[in-house]
Structures are given as C-alpha cells and as structure tokens.
Design brief:
- By secondary structure, the chain is an alpha+beta fold.
- Helix content is 39%, strand content 22%.
- The strands form 5 sheets. Strands 3-2-1-4-6-5 form a 6-stranded mixed β-sheet, with helices on both faces.
- Helix 6 crosses helix 10 and helix 10 crosses helix 12.
Length: 471
Amino acid sequence: MPDDTLSPLERVRRFAEREQLFRSAGKVVVAVSGGADSVAALLLLRDLGEAHGFEVVAAHFDHHLRHESADDRDFVSDLCERLDVPCMTGEGDVPLAAEEMRMGIEEAARKLRYQFLAFAAERQGSGAVATGHTADDHVETVLHHIVRGSGVRGIRGMLPVAPLPGMPSLRLIRPLLPLARADTVAVCNGAGVDYREDATNAELHATRNRLRHTVLPQLREENPSVDAAIRGLAESARELFRSVERSAALAQPRDRAPGSVVFELETLRALGSEARLLLLEREAAFLRAEVDANRTRLRNLDEVLSSGAGRVVFGGLTVEASVGLARLSSGLDDEDAPEIPEQFVNIPGITRAGERVLQAATEPFPDDTAAPPAAAVPADRIEGALRLRALAPRDRMQFRGYRRKVSGILKSARVPAWERGGLIALAGRENVVAVLGASVAIADGGDEDDCYYFRIAPPPQAAPPLRVDGG
C-alpha cells in the first residue's frame, strides 16, 4: 500500500522503480488533457526525467466534444512553453468518427486519442506513453469492470504497464497509480500551476461518473476503507492472472499459415476461458484481425470445443473445430472455393481443375517429399469415362471393403472441415473412386492392384517469352 507520509514525487519514484516503468526510456510522451491529474503527471515526470536521464514530451488531443476544447489546447501549449517542455497537439472530429465507425462517442474518442498518442510516440522516437491515471481511477475502473460482468482480467483494474491500445509495440505506463486525485491537486498547487476543470466529469449520464459520485460515496459509508479493499482485490486478481498468462503462453499451435493458425483441439480444451481469450487475442494480432469477444461467444466456444465440431465468430476472427483440430482464421482464406466444372479426365495426361491441374499416370509418380500426395485407383473400379468434379455432400465411395459416405471417410482420415470445400472428386459412372486436394489423396488402391495414379498440383509455370537479340 502507498506510504502517505512520503511526498508524491517520492511515491511515484519508488513505484516506477518497482514496476520498471522507465526501463530503457530515453524519452517519454505524457498525455496531457489539462486536468489536475495530467498536469501533475507532466510536472512529476519532468522532475524525475531530470534526475534519471529521460526527456519528457507532452501530447494533447482535442476531441472537439466541448465548446471550450480549443481553450484546453491553448492552455496545455502555454503551460508547456512556460515549463520548457516540447508539446505536440492533435485533433479529431470524434462525433463524425463515431458515426463512420458505428461506435459510441466515448469509444471513438478513446480510439482516436490513442491513435494520436501512438503517432506522437513514434514521431518522438519514444517507446512509452504515460498517462495521469491515479489510484481513484484504478478503483473506479475495477468497479466499472465488475458492473459490466468482467472476469479476473478486468478486476485487475489499471495496470502499471500495458500495451498501448492499437499499437502493442509501444508501452502505456501509469506512474501516478500510487497517488490519489487529491495528491495531484496538491502537486499542481505546490508548483503554482493552474489546471483545467472538465465540467462533464460531474454529469451523471456516464457510468464512470455515477460510480465516482454516487456508488463509491455509498460504499465508503458502509466501509471507510473500501478503496483500499478494492485495490487489494485488484492486486490479488493481478497475482492470480499471472498463472492464466503463463498457461496461455505455453499453448502453442501445431501449424501457422497466412490467414490461419491450427491447434490440437485438446490444447484449447485444456485452457480456461480467460486463458483462451488471451490466446485468441495473441493469435489475432499475428493474423492482423480484430477480436470482438463477450461471455456468450466464449460460452459458445466452450460448447464447440467440447463437441469437437462447429464454429464461432469473434468479429474478425473465426474459430472452427473439426477432427480433433481447432483453426483460428482471419477470414482472408475463407472465400468460396472456385467452381470446378465437371469434365472428362485425360488418362494419362493433365486435366485442368480450376486454378490447379489433375495429373494422371499409369505408373506411380517418382518419390518426392515436396510433391503433393497421390491416390492409387484400381483399374477395375473405373466404370466408363472418368470425370473430375467438385465433391458433393452425398458422395459415396468403395473403401476398405465397404461402400461408405465420403464425408465419413474424410473424418476418419482427419481431414478438417475447412479443407473439404476445395477437394476434387474423381467419379466413374456411379461412385467416387478418389478424393484429391493439395494435401489430401484418398483412394482404395494397393501395391498388389493394377492401378492408375492421380494427384492435384499447381499449374505448370509458363515459359518466359523467347527473347531474340537481333544483330
């Protein structure tokens, strides 16, 4: 717990050292709105920077949400000039952005603000953005997350260090978390520096303001130490969540490819919902997809993983389960498979199959580990002219002594559902005799049979045009 007998500067210094907030920091961008908290952050970090060798740059974003927002910008610019601190300012039309992005005003304001802070940090060559969030903000955040139905992660409240929203390669640091809101006012008054008052902070239409002005005062009547109790709860959640982070970090995929990541189903089944969400967010960052998760979708994911089949869409990320595997995809490779017109097969020879080709031979293909797999079809199974076409849901095939549904054969062969849309069927007069794809080759031939051999391959590279240099 913070030691109130120490000065605000000393409390921030000790907290920053314990949390390694200024590790390798040559320059720190401080978000300054003009309120007491952010102005105190600028003053304290300027003093700490002089003592510990890092430079401070202020960044102010005008949301255009209040008539006096331009006055806030001018105030911050003038303050930084008096303090001899570099200052970057930006602005954005939040109401217009909220309409275009179809989100609430507060969410759009936050998104634009962090975009600007990321831009400021990159322009200044800084790896960290500091905010003036205090212990009071931390308590309000924990309550806000509880009201919204958060899990353990949300109950941690505000972390001392976190990835900057929208730019995870940068750090968001909160060095004023050991201070109360009253401390930041005292810092400003002690330095003889004014600060701006935001009248909207008293309006009760916002959930956070109701928690601040109505709920917390009532809780303090029940328990005068409720703030400390909530901070202790957040610290316990933070400690507990470390094991969740470790389990998510240990869960690694069996395969990565552009647009998708594949896990063993048991890997995801073994994780709790909090760790699964961490894993989804980690892989979504790899796939450059947005994750939109809620309790309903996480519960649906649990059902899909338990049954081993189905899919759940988390905004820009899709999770599918099939044949003991789970695939996370960004949707970039989920377009409908190109239509393959039914046509006769050249035996031996090459037949066009959409964007690929079907190779047919009367002898086994040469051994090549890099080549696509081949299927051996007994000659006596081919009745009439052999045709290639797209695989149909009701297709059947003679396989291992029985006439079986191809879908069941594919399941037994652990061909996942997401690979079946691009498969090609080779069919005689009635039955399918082989199923082929880039990594699939299923037929019923053996070494003792008189067979034809088939495989799917990319089209041969066209030869470059012949160039003749005249003399």
